Amino acid sequence: MKQKKWPEAWQEVTPGCIVFEPGNASTYKTGSWRAQRPIWDNKKCIKCGICYIFCPEACVSETGEGFFAANLDYCKGCGICAHECWPQAIVMVEEEV
Amino acid sequence: MNTVQNFEIFAPKLIEKRELFSPGHRACQGCGEVLALRLILKALGEDIVVSNATGCMEIISTAYPQTAWNVPYIHVAFENAAAVGSGVEAGLKALRRKGKIADRYVKSVAIAGDGGTVDIGFQALSGAMERGHDMIFFCLDNEAYMNTGIQRSSATPFMAATTTSPAGKAIKGQRTGKKNVPEIMVAHSIPYVATACPSYPIDLMNKVEKAKKIKGPAYIHVFSVCPTGWRGASNETIKLGRMVVETGIFPLYEVENGKYRLTMETPEPRRPVGDYLKLQGRFRHLDPGDIVKVQALVDKEYRKLMHKVETSVAWS
User: Fold this and answer.
1) What does the pLDDT look like over A22-66, one tens digit per residue?
2) Can you tell me the distance from the alpha carbon of A67 to that of A49, in angstroms, rounded to the nearest whole number?
3) Which chain B residues touch A86 with a CB distance below 8 Å?
4) How many CB atoms are located within 10 Å of the residue B100 CB?
5) Contact A59 B23 (CB under 8 A)
6) Cβ–Cβ of B25/A24 closer than 8 Å?
7) Which residue of A26, B6, B110, B244 has the fewest C-beta atoms within 10 A of its own C-beta?
8) Å between B103 CA and nearest CA of chain A
């Protein structure tokens, strides 16, 4: 049986609205909010991690080679990473429909 | 465990990698408050119990049946984050004494927005700090009631336009200055009070770690930029947070046992406040004469603080 996303009747609501699965908000993909997406230019990247530390969504992470990339399932396209990047290795491009 | 292995180098890469605040929360684009929360949780680690007052951070993180928190979390009413936080601390102590939970140190953490701290939750906060509970209280200050639609609070700065202090011909926005809550907390004689801003992430995380080590009440006032409510651009969140420190509107300092210390040097001469105000739509109605008035107020507050930095001595 497919797991239910939310309770369908009041009997299924847990007492006190307790949620037993920590961090399950990650099943909700906020990437659809995005109007612009960040693109990393790894030639300019100095691997400092500024984009990682300043991302409010916690969606920027380090890839194997030490460069950084955003998880576009969650990136809301705020543009903080592109604005803060010292060597300007990140550009925001319009999201195509 | 230190958040940063080597304090001398500013290396964002070296901070704790684990995310205790999961992605998929519903914060606005470019939210400075959720960034502050993420960094705070990184610095605190797992051994905490969070009691969170109603406010933006509760609304965006706990849309039932989902939660963005990877740590024990209680949502409480607007006014009693500090009261529940102190109850959690007393409860943990009792359970540990009776041997019902493992004997390890778990910190009680209360988090509230500026409305839940400076207006509605103030008496509970004052009570918890006065009773000396072993807890940390975080005020995530975005300078108005943002989750209900930008109503003024007593943390709203002078002349800012909000929906309940609109700018018009007779009155130019908020008529009073910002309530200085860190100062009131210092007056409670608690061991640690600090102000922080997520634009200075290492500084913020070091303060959180210091507060965690202290056995006793600690209060950290975190300035968090709100692009939605301040009518600013979402990508300028970090820039606004940096400017607020450079202009001296919100200096970063810590008070350990009554001794004031600036943790982030403000450049001399300080940046004019006009630079900061003109980036935000809530200050759009100000003319040059008003900016002079704001500058005078900021100068006064900054002088008061600098006097304390120079003359204060620790009481223990």
Assistant:
1) 888 888 899 899 999 999 999 999 888 889 999 998 899 888 888
2) 8
3) none
4) 8
5) yes
6) no
7) B6
8) 23
Q: What is the pLDDT of residues B260-277, one digit of tens each?
A: 999 988 888 899 999 999
Q: Out of B15, B39, B68, whose CB is closest to A25?
A: B68
For residues B229 and B147, what is the distance between their CA atoms, to the nearest angstrom?
9
Report the amino acid identity of residue A46. Answer: I
Q: Chain A residue closest to B236 (CA)?
A: A80
Terminal CA-to-CA distance of chain B, rounded, Å?
Answer: 26
Task: Specify whether the CB–CB gap between B240 and B232 falls below 8 A.
Answer: yes
Give the C-alpha separation, B278 to B283, whole Å.
7
Confidence label for B3 from pLDDT (cuts 50, 70 and 90): low
> Is A44 at the interface with chain B, CB within 8 A?
no
Report ipTM for this prediction: 0.91
Query: What is the chain A residue with the closest CA to B234?
Result: A78
**Cα A70 to chain center, whole Å?**
6
Which tokens belong to A87?
A: 């060597």
Chain B: closest CA distance from residue A96 (Å): 19
Give residue-wise pLDDT tens across range B201-225: 989 999 999 999 999 999 999 999 9
pTM above 0.95, yes or no: no
Burial class of residue B179, CB neighbours in 10 A (0-12, 13-18, 19+): middle
- Of the partner residues B12, B19, B71, the one whose CB lies closest to the CB of residue A50: B12
Contact B147, B53 (CB under 8 A): no
> Inter-chain contact B67–A24, Cβ cutoff 8 Å?
yes
Nearest CA in chain B to A70: B23
Beta bridge partners of B256: B192, B259
Is the distance from CB of B52 to CB of B112 less than 8 angstroms? yes
Whether B13 and A48 have beta carbons less than 8 Å apart is answered as: yes
